[in-house]
Amino acid sequence: GILISYLLFASSSQLFFSYFKDLVGREVTVELKNDLAIRGTLHSVDQYLNIKLENTRVVDQDKYPHMLSVRNCFIRGSVVRYVQLPPEGVDVELLHDATRREARGG
């Protein structure tokens, strides 16, 4: 998969908000700043990059057994370290172009 750093989100949140909206319905893995990684279907994302996942499962179930019963979750954008996207969900050229436009200020 492709990892997108939350540090990139902070400066380009509108860019990533639009990008993630197009990934609704796809499976993603969200790694939190506390090292918990949750895989699930992206249900929604808002302008603050808060993420709602459905059909979730914890990547390291042995380390987080208390999370086994969690099937849906809301993740505050500010606690996200990375979002791993499915390779088929990534148009690298489109992402590069959008990032270059954003860096130039529009």
Automatic annotation (TrEMBL):
It is found in: Nucleus. One of its GO terms (molecular function) is RNA binding. GO terms for cellular component: catalytic step 2 spliceosome; Lsm1-7-Pat1 complex; P-body; precatalytic spliceosome; U4/U6 x U5 tri-snRNP complex; U6 snRNP. One of its GO terms (biological process) is mRNA splicing, via spliceosome. SUPFAM superfamilies: Sm-like ribonucleoproteins. PROSITE patterns: SM. Keywords: mRNA processing, mRNA splicing, Nucleus, Ribonucleoprotein, RNA-binding, Spliceosome. It comes from the Eukaryota. Residues 15-89 form the Sm domain. InterPro entries: LSM_dom_sf, Sm, Sm_dom_euk/arc, U6_snRNA_Lsm2. PANTHER family: SM-LIKE PROTEIN LSM2, SNRNP CORE PROTEIN FAMILY MEMBER. Belongs to the snRNP Sm proteins family. This is Sm-like protein lsm2. It comes from Phtheirospermum japonicum.
